[in-house]
Structures are given as C-alpha cells and as structure tokens.
Task: structure prediction
Amino acid sequence: MRGIIHSVRAALRFRGYKPQPLSWLSARRWIKQFDKKDRVLAKQLLDNVIYLSEATTREILVGRNAVLMKRLNEAGLPAKNLIYVSVHEAGSSSPVMLNLLRDAAFLEKLGCRLIDGRDTLNLVKAMNELGEGALIYVDDFVGSGTQFCTERDFIANNFVGTFSEFMLAPSICEEAFEKLDERGIQAFAGHKHVKSERPLHPECPVFDESQRQRVAAICKGIDKFGLGYKGLATMVVLYRNAPNTVPVMLRGNVNQRPYFGIFPRTIDLPLPS
Amino acid sequence: MPTLKPTQPAVPQIVPTGKLRHLTTREVIPSNSNPRHLFDPEQLLELKNNIGEHGVLVPITVYQAKGQAKFSILDGERRYRCVVELEKEGHAGKAGGALTLPANVVEPPTKIAGLLYMFSIHNYREGWELMPTALGLKIVMEDLGTTDNKALVKLTGLSEPQIERCKKLLKFPEKFQEMSLDLDPKTRIPSNFWIEALPVLDLALETSEQLKKLGRDRSTEKLVDKYRNKKIKSVIHFRRIMEAYDLWEDDAPTRAKVLRRVEEFFLKPDLETRDAFDEFVVEKKRVQNALTACEEFLSQLRKYKLTYTTNEDERSNLRKALHEVQAYCESLEHALEGSDDPEAQHD
Result:
C-alpha cells in the first residue's frame, strides 16, 4: 500500500514531464525493477529530485530576467542594448528556453536582440552596432559549466565593444558558478544546485556511506558513466528533459533497455515503431 | 573609401588617468582576449617574488562595464596573475585579509580602442586563428574610413603582411568566414585555408569556362569539400598549384596542361593535390638552385668589398638595388615561414 501511495505521489509531483509522461503505474514499474532491498534507496533518490515544471521554469526565468533587466537599466543599459544568446546547438535546451523567455517576457517587443551563440558573425555585428551592452546567455541548466565556458571562450575572441555578461538559467550547479565567476559572467539562477542536495555526493546527508556506495554501484552497473556527465549526479530535472548529469538510475539506458528510467531523456527513448 | 593618412589623429587613448582603488583579485577579471600563453614563466616568477616582498607598487588599470560587478583588466595582467598565485600559496594582505591590487579605474575603452588592444594581444599569440583579427580589422576600416595598409599598420600595430592576409579573408563571403568561427575544432576550417585558396580560385575562375559557369561560391565549396575529405591534406599544398602554373610560364603546352589539371582538380572530388600537381613541380632541384644562388650572390658581393663610394648617384643606385633585394628576400622568407602550416596546432 505504501508503495502505491509513493507512486501516486511521484506521479502528481512530476506531472508534466514531457519526454515520457509519468503515471503512478509507470512509477510503480520503475521501482519494481530494482531488488527489494534496493527499493527504499531508489525511493529516497526519487524523493530528492528537484523538479522544475514548465510553469516554475517560466516563472523563474521571467522573474530573474526582470531583476536583471531592471539592474541593467539602472546601470544605463536599456533593453535595446541587451543581446540574449542561446548557447549550444539548435534543438538543445538553450534555444527552447530563450524562446520561452522571449514570449513570456516580450523580449522582442522591448527591443532586445536574440542571437544564436554559434552564429558568431551576427553576434559580432550586433555587438559592433551597439558598442556597449550586455550579453545574456540563456539555458535551462548548467552542470559543470565546462562545455559552456569552452564555447564562450572561443566566441569571446571575437567580442567587440564593452559588454557585461550574464548567465540566466533556472538552475545552475555550484561547480559552474566558479567557472562563470572567473570569466566575470554573473549567474542569474533561480536555484543554485549545491552538492549537499545530491544524495550521491559525500556532502549530502541523505544516504550513509554504504547506502551511497550501493546506489552508485547500481548506477555504474547500468552504465559505466552511471553517475552522469563528470560524475556530478545532479538531481535537477526539468519538465522538458533530464540533464545528462542526472544519475542513470533515474534516466535509464539508451533505448530504455534493460533499465528504463523514470525521467528518460528524449534521446534515450526508443523510436516509435 | 577615403584613405586615412598616417598623420591623422590617432585613435582614442586606452589608458586615461582614473580613480585609484584597492581591489581584491575576486573583484577583477582578466581580459576577454586574455593571452594565456603569453607570459614568460621565469619573468613571471621574478615579478611574483618581487610582489611577494614589496607588494604591487604600480597600479593596474581596470574598467567596469555597465552592469558588471567586477572590473576588467586593461593593463596589468601579469601583476594580477602574480597576486592570484601568491594567494594560492597562502600569502595574505595586511591584518591577515585578502591581498589587494592598487588599481586605476578608468572609463571603459571605446570600441576602436578595445579592438586595438585586441590586435596587440593577437600579435603576440602564436598559432592564432586570424579570422577574429580580420573581423576586427573590418570594423576598424569601416569606422575609421581607411583601407590603406600603411595607415592600418600604424593604427593597429599589425604587420603589413598580416593586414594583407586579413583582407584576403574578408574577400570571402560571410558563409565561408563563418566556417573559420565554427566552435567545433574538428569541423572548423582554418583561416589559412582561405588565404592559400584565394589565388587558386582566382586562377581557376579566370581560366576555366566550366568553373566560371559553376560560379565562385560553388567552386569554393568544392575546395572546402575536398579539404574536409582530406583530398587537400595541407593548405600549403595550394601553393603547389600556383607553383605549377608559374613555373611553366614559358612553356605554353605544359601550362595548358596545368590549367586543365586545375579544372580537373576542382571537378573531381577524389583527386588529391599532390597527386594532381607534383608532376609539374620539381621542388628539390629548385630549392638546391636557390641555395646555390644565395651562396654565389653573397660571395660575389663580399668580393667587391664595397663599404663606400664617392659617387652620389652610384651610391643611390646601389642602395636602391640592395633595398629591392632586401624586400624580395624578406617577402620570400615570410612566405616560407612555418606558421602557415595548417597542420600546426592552433589553440
């Protein structure tokens, strides 16, 4: 009975997860694929997921953006001097977040510019036209920050004029804060994802050492990189996807075999027959 | 576009006087064009020891971009790095607090001043991709209304050959320029590709009716495809094509054959550069002949023991001739520089 209640709660809590909608039955099936003695650990892991629904994501982005725009306006940078930049390739989360923000915050109407960060020439042109302003990178989640910083450093060789830089995202890992800070990029996040929120990190009190090792072993048994990219084992899941830093126990295998995840990434799902 | 004479007023100064403040390293960020490999480690160590003993005596120069919480360095990157290193080693400031740097806070540089600063950094970096410099130069040329090489040399501190190379890059349509700005180094086309390909494209489009019909962009795309498919193994090999063409200037049938091969090279995706043109270029013998010519030239000149002449006209003529030799030798030496090697690692 307690298992059913847990599954129903999970289905309610994580409703709106787009790649694969969650029902209490699928939550139940997910739990049941683990050995009985491991199910408590799986439930605890699931309970510590920080889920950002579409409404919350929008609310955070719009709210943080409003604070940022106000601050920049006070500093002498009106909306027309702001360039919003999507990072990573088309089809990734960043352009989706930027579109969401554009519509919800009326960015175009306010005179802001929106540019794909990979379109370096147009970015240079816009910076050249403005002379001074702010570059606001938009993404859904920043994990280690390595990929973003590598790309940004390459683009930065072309920067023209005087621009302050910001990263706007619903959630940013504490590891990324340092990397962003080194470059003078100010993080505007709704949530700073600290290590103590991640049950598979020694700083987090959720599991004791043996439990943590057991969960890590299950993850690595599914996939040798089972703790997620760079072993971050982050716990933030967004409505449209789970970052690749989320433990594989939650995400499942590619094609969802032999393990299926409760939060599969779109690219992990099998093609419809 | 009007030409800016070198005597016209220079660009705005980058370092005017400003307010003096004492900043911690947490309040400072290095420049965007930060030349991470620029500093000599030995000199840096000497400076660090000096700063460790006496502190930073000469203020660094910083500015604060609007909306930016931190200060960006305009001048004093080495001092900043030394203080960062000292902090890592456990050095503390007065009363055990954080180490601080005296800093002149100035107004943010103008767009042009910022670009000129970027040029000075690019100048120092080895293996630097030239496209960002070219794009910056385009802005400088448009804003200051000059395309004159000498004026640009004076303004930017770039060498004339560098400026020429940038101009060659700017001759390509933006869609090709973008390929050198690709974030993925595996698919990025090096700037040198365009510089080396330009004379070959000019030649091919001037001489081949088929390529004329195909158009410049499509012909360029064919070269890009070849490069991506490793049929142009090194961009230096473009020079073999031009060599093959130049070498047979006095032999019409062979030159015609070279031109047919050039057309074939564009149109046949699998034809590799060296396979196509090596037969026309007998490199080893030419290099040997050039070496012998250098030795003979020097030996002859030394024999004359000419250090002065009383005849003003003769002296002037000789100096002019020597200048010509010098200029040619310099251009040749520059053309043979290893930095053009596309297979050299870029950072």
In short: Residues 1-15, 339-347 of chain B have pLDDT under 50 and may be disordered.
